[in-house]
């Protein structure tokens, strides 16, 4: 029974591997957790006192009701059933779910200097077996902090992200050519099939160009064989990870998933290492000539003297994995909603052409004068947080809302439920970008009600790059095309597969813009 529940839970994404001492902490007697309560003070409650999900509730909702790929929706249901904070306790899998921005803020402000994610055991196993270094997603503690301090530079600040605008615009230009080629394949000459897949190729090319300082050909008509192997390996790694994460270890000797998982990671690292070695040779040649190395992110990492080449390889691989889905999925959902709402799309088009006339390439300064553009992306991230559930392991005892949780407690942050809270977002299931415009603010919104890039020192290191990619790409797509739904398509809903994805391909019409349509505006 434990194997079944643990496997399904982990495959569904509700609980990643926890530190070995997490389960032990939950077995402490309640009296021990409150022994220090002052005489006469209210007794602090414990994990056992929380309402929440047990085994039979899990069986009912996940298996009988079929929510195993819709855990994001379960967040909303559980919040209605149990309140803003509840427990999840099935076998040894135990966690505290938080779906209130007020409680989330209290929790995250107690994180300390070295916040701890869930233990990414299977990723770490590959690194250990192959003698590779951990990256920002797998490293923890003081070593993580040192690594993150190095990685933050040249990427995290808006003023530093500006350095990559020309490179991103170069990739966006190729994306527009690629979209043109894709729509010409359709019988009517205007439909682009599986928009999310096309945008994935764009996002992978963009982040690779920034991290490796070279183009890898994802948007070419004929993708280079090595690059195609790299793309395939990323997909296979995530596909096999689902099974490796769910199945007991003894199956690794009899089923193909584990070896395929390791081989996929090997290909990813080998591809990256080849590009790193090539750049290192170029830097060495420049230094031998007495020249200062010229370049951006990879050059900075290799010449900083603060990280080893092995650490650069581990970090770049993990940054690459984290940097693709945010851009591609968010842009796909954005175009889907703009196609369904011509009024918002028309208003966005007017804003874009007012700041950046047709055929002109936008700059980062131009983006600062397009509030609706940024509001559209913010609203998409609110409706579809790329990672619908995130987590932390308490590195010290935590007291929240009258509950005492010992060190090692696993907390799950329910971002989907948080960002669809009606108290902060009236009509929470509607696509309403203007809610983010200053003049539309009618009430104070809690700052933790929508945090798609996380918070604090463990927030997304690539946030500014992802935002820049999305803003530049959307500006130029809307400049060139009017987006409409595919007449043969239907409503698209999100599915939770580690990240939030569409339950079917998003196919859209990309129509050439003939004239500046000034008929659309918010009114």
From TrEMBL:
<dbReference type="InterPro" id="IPR001128">
    <property type="entry name" value="Cyt_P450"/>
</dbReference>
<protein>
    <submittedName>
        <fullName>Sterol 26-hydroxylase, mitochondrial</fullName>
    </submittedName>
</protein>
<dbReference type="InterPro" id="IPR017972">
    <property type="entry name" value="Cyt_P450_CS"/>
</dbReference>
<keyword id="KW-0503">Monooxygenase</keyword>
<keyword id="KW-0408">Iron</keyword>
<comment type="similarity">
    <text>Belongs to the cytochrome P450 family.</text>
</comment>
<dbReference type="InterPro" id="IPR036396">
    <property type="entry name" value="Cyt_P450_sf"/>
</dbReference>
<keyword id="KW-0479">Metal-binding</keyword>
<dbReference type="Pfam" id="PF00067">
    <property type="entry name" value="p450"/>
</dbReference>
<dbReference type="InterPro" id="IPR050479">
    <property type="entry name" value="CYP11_CYP27_families"/>
</dbReference>
<keyword id="KW-0560">Oxidoreductase</keyword>
<keyword id="KW-0349">Heme</keyword>
<dbReference type="InterPro" id="IPR002401">
    <property type="entry name" value="Cyt_P450_E_grp-I"/>
</dbReference>
């Amino acid at each position: 029974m434990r194997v079944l529940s643990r496997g399904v839970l982990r495959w569904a994404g509700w609980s990643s591997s926890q530190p070995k001492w997490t389960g032990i902490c939950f077995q402490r007697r309640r009296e021990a957790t409150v022994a220090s309560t002052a005489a006469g003070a209210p007794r602090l409650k414990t994990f056992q006192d929380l309402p929440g999900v047990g085994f039979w509730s899990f069986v009912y909702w996940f298996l009988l009701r079929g929510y195993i790929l819709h855990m994001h929706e379960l967040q909303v249901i559980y919040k209605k059933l149990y309140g803003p904070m509840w427990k999840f306790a099935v076998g040894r899998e135990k966690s505290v779910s938080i779906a209130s921005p007020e409680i989330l803020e209290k929790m995250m402000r107690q994180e300390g200097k070295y916040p701890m994610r869930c233990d990414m055991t299977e990723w770490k196993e590959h690194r250990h077996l192959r003698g590779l270094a951990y990256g920002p997603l797998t490293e923890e503690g003081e070593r993580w902090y040192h690594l993150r301090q190095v990685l933050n530079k040249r990427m995290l600040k808006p003023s530093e992200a500006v350095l990559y605008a020309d490179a991103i615009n170069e990739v966006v230009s190729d994306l527009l050519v690629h979209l043109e080629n894709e729509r010409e394949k359709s019988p009517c000459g205007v439909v682009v099939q599986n928009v999310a897949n096309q945008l994935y190729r764009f996002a992978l090319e963009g982040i690779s160009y920034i991290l490796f300082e070279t183009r890898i050909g994802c948007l070419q008509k004929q993708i280079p064989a090595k690059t195609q192997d790299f793309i395939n390996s990323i997909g296979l790694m995530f596909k096999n990870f689902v099974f490796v994460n769910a199945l007991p270890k003894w199956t690794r000797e009899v089923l193909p998933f584990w070896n395929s998982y390791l081989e996929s990671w090997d290909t990813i690292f080998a591809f990256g290492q080849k590009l790193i070695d090539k750049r290192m040779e170029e830097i060495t040649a420049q230094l031998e000539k007495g020249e200062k190395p010229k370049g951006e992110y990879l050059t900075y990492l290799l010449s900083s003297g603060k990280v080893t080449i092995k650490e650069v390889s581990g970090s770049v691989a993990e940054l690459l994995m984290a940097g693709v889905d945010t851009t591609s999925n968010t842009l796909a959902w954005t175009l889907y909603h703009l196609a369904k709402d011509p009024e918002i799309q028309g208003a966005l088009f007017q804003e874009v052409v007012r700041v950046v006339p047709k055929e002109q390439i936008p700059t980062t300064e131009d983006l600062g004068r397009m509030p609706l553009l940024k509001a559209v992306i913010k609203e998409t991230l609110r409706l579809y947080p790329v990672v619908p559930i995130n987590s932390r392991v308490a590195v010290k005892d935590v007291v929240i809302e009258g509950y005492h949780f010992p060190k090692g407690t696993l907390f799950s942050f329910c971002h989907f439920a948080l960002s669809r809270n009606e108290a902060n977002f009236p009509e929470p299931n509607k696509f309403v970008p203007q809610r983010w415009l200053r003049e539309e603010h009618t009430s104070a919104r809690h700052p933790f009600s929508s945090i798609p890039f996380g918070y604090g020192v463990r927030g997304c290191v690539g946030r500014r790059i992802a935002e820049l990619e999305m803003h530049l790409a959307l500006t130029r797509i809307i400049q060139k095309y009017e987006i409409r739904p595919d007449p043969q398509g239907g409503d698209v809903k999100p599915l939770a597969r580690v990240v939030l994805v569409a339950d079917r391909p998003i196919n859209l019409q990309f129509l050439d813009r003939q004239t500046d349509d000034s008929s659309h505006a918010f009114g």
